[in-house]
Amino acid sequence: MVNYPYPNMVKAVACLLFVGGLSAQTPEQERRLERLEQRMRQLDPSFTTSSAQSWEERLAALELKLDSALAGARPSDPKPQMPAPEPAKEPLSLLSVKGDYESSNDSESRMPVAGYMEAHFNKNRGEPGQADFHRFVLLFGHNFSRRIKFWSELEVEHSFVEGGEESGEVALEQAYLDFLIKPYFNLRAGMLLTPVGLVNERHEPPSFNGVERPFVETFIIPTTWRELGFGVTGDLGHGIRYRGYLMSALNATRLSAEDGLSASRTSGFEASFRNPAKALRVEYAGVRRLVLGFSGYTGRTGNQFLSVNPAVSIASVDGRYSYRRFDLRGLFANTWISQAGKLNMVLQRQNGLGANVGSEMRGAYIEPAIHVMPRKVRQDLILFTRYERFNTQHRMPAGFLPLAEFDRKALVTGFTFKPHADIALKFDYVLNYNASSVIRPLNALNLGLGWWF
């Protein structure tokens, strides 16, 4: 019988699926999947996959081969004696448990555990540097049956939480049930990440370059943006997959010219569901190493404290491409806010300060990167540069003037070093610009250490 390195390969496949998710194909995950497929072919020449298959189909084939080997089947046998194949299931487990976790419909239930963490050092020019253990996140899942699965993400921010003080927080980032019906149609309900943009659903430190998340996906698209909701997910084949949700809406009282949409998330706390928001994301991954995405969102943001009920709508397009040692990603996002003039007047009466919210916000970025170390080396060094342009007052309602300080640009350049595929040491320097000749933003130096498991 062939001696497979089962524990290491099972762990590698699980790590690919856990934190990135089935739809989270990144160049690093693609490289790891190719290495695993090559190792499996060396151990079992009968194992084959096709480049025409989707990323999920290749992972499923690899999992079935591992399950077969772990069950005692001999790869050298042309027709191993096995039970009839069962419906495909997500390989979500690192740890199998029984007893209290056993389902009446399953002989074995699975409780996967994963997580990610990151620590930062940030220094604005002319100011003292600050160190912060920014995030400690644990992810837990459970298979009630082959068709009902649970996933959650619990985060501690800034390492210390004290009631009533300006310090960290404990936040529930995800907690939802999946009801698997067909590959092209499944149901999902709970605390969901809003499927808009590149980073919001894939925000683990090793999955993106730069210590901090992109400005565009902070001010124009909030992050990490989660809301209560329910909806449908599926893979339509030919590389097309989608997620569509009805979700709790943003909070208009937290909109501002300085922070854009970043503070308007309700995060599932006393969230308004009077007029649920609609969110949709469609991705195309039918060409190898290329993923294109379109995201749309619209929802009313008023509440019982406002006499106005503005709508916030977002449209974004994004793409990721990898060729040999070169990576490229980019995003464009536009946000529309209806009744922005009335909202500004209401907020000024309530707070005594003008929020000066724009009727339209816009942002875009492009990020080329290159892997400078040979493929045969287990470590990876990625040099990158990201150019961002974002304006939270791209259009203003009648009677309000834009401020030049909110028409901003940033050039972020640095590197990501990975001594292991799941560990990232990051450095970047940020050149900040705006259109104002009076208020000038500060440049910044950032260091980061992040990992997932």
Q: How would you describe this protein?
A:
This protein is mainly β and 453 residues long. The protein has two domains: 1-91, no CATH class; 92-452, Porin, CATH 2.40.160. It contains five helices and 18 strands. It has a 16-stranded antiparallel β-barrel with strand order 3-4-5-6-7-8-9-10-11-12-13-14-15-16-17-18. The chain starts with 5 loop residues before the first helix and ends with a strand. The model is unreliable at 1-7, 17-24 and 73-109 (pLDDT under 50).
* Strand runs, count: 18
Structural class: mainly beta
Spans of at least 5 consecutive residues with low confidence: 1-7, 17-24, 73-109
Distance between the terminal alpha carbons, to the nearest Å?
A: 30 Å
Largest sheet: 16 strands, antiparallel, barrel
CATH fold call of the largest domain: Porin
Mean pLDDT: 83
The number of helices is 5
CATH class assignment of the largest domain: Mainly Beta
Taken together, the total number of domains comes to: 2
Lateral arrangement of strands in the main beta sheet: 3-4-5-6-7-8-9-10-11-12-13-14-15-16-17-18
The coarse silhouette is globular
Strand content: 35-45%
CATH superfamily membership of the largest domain: Porin
Helix fraction by DSSP (H/I, runs of at least 4): 10-25%
* CATH architecture classification name of the largest domain: Beta Barrel
Order of helices and strands: HHHEEEEEEEHEEEEEEHEEEEE
Integer-rounded radius of gyration:
23 Å
